[in-house]
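Field reference: sequence -> structure
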Amino acid sequence: MTRGEMGTRGTPELRTEESAAASRIMKLDLRLNLGLPDGHIWPTEEARTAVVRVLRAHRPKVLLTTHWDDSHPDHANTCRVVREAARLATMARYDENKGDKLAEMPAIMHSLFSRWVVPSFIVDVSDFVEEKMAAIKAHVSQFYRPESDEPQTRISAPGFLDEIEYRMRYFGLADWRQCG
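Structure field:
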């Protein structure tokens, strides 16, 4: 959604390089950045229209977005923008001057990150956990580096990357059939 220009660590240019590295690791065919203003993601017509145009151009069957209860305002608002845009992309009279074909309503999933939410399903990532962690670690500027003089954030604290692995193991071991 943004270039991360308000981020505490790194620069937008460095984040672009890191995202490209992560994209190569994940073997993505396409990675887009809408260039919306960092720290100012709101469910505006500009933001919704930008996402609608991407959805109509690429017609995904599944969308993975942030959780609506994320503590970061941009993340919570991204969820709202994506959910609204997914519906609006199916409506013939929304942004009708663009000329794109209507999108079908995709399934929408929400990732869990900063809040405790009981998941409705778990995806077993065992077969590609090393690639997943390598793609995350490609965003080097965001994580702990003892030589960095940049301010520490929650994710740049020592041990944060371990937390990600612990969370994957926890969810992988839990019997989520009893949830619900």
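Note: Helices lie at 12-26, 45-58, 73-88, 129-137, 160-173.
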